[in-house]
Amino acid sequence: MKPVAICYSKCGTCQIAEKWLKINNIEYTCRSIKDENPTKEELKLWISKSGLPVSRFFNTSGLLYKEYNMKDKVKTLSEDELLDILASNGMIVKRPILLIGEIVLIGFKEEEWKQPFGK
Q1: DSSP per residue, 10-22
Q2: How far from 100 is each of 71, 78, 87, 103, CA to CA, in Å?
Q3: At 9, phi and psi to the nearest 5?
Q4: What's the domain count of the chain?
Q5: First to last CA, the chain
Q6: β-strand partners of 97
């Protein structure tokens, strides 16, 4: 099964991540986070697999994060409410997301991305 990179084509970090995958000859499937927003169920699964708190799945540098005043809400809303917000618009979700079987990586950190591929 090929890894899935969930990206936004205009995101600089996503572009770097996809370039890294190509340079390292890693076949992957690309999914547009803008066109195919993650569902609440997917997000629950990814959060569980990643071992990260739901707050780490927010694109803190994005316009929607600021527009929705998420800095304060992330601290006070329930996980279920936060998941509803994340599932409402892919542009508020941190990216890229790399899915490799049971592994879920959020954001692009080359050292983290090397490990599942033995690089």
Answers
A1: T-HHHHHHHHHHH
A2: 30, 28, 21, 5
A3: -60, -25
A4: 1
A5: 18
A6: 6, 106
Neighbours of 86 (CB within 10 A): 26
Burial (CB < 10 A; 0-12, 13-18, 19+), residue 108, is buried
Beta carbons within 8 Å of 38's beta carbon, 6+ residues apart: 6, 46, 86, 87, 90, 93, 97
DSSP letter at 91 equals G
The boundaries of the domain holding residue 77 are 4-117
Each residue's pLDDT expressed in tens, for the chain with a length of 119 residues: 799 999 999 999 999 999 999 999 999 999 999 999 999 999 999 999 999 999 999 999 999 999 999 999 999 999 999 999 999 999 999 999 999 999 999 999 999 999 999 87
0.85 surpassed by pTM: yes
For residue 75, the domain's CATH number is 3.40.30.10
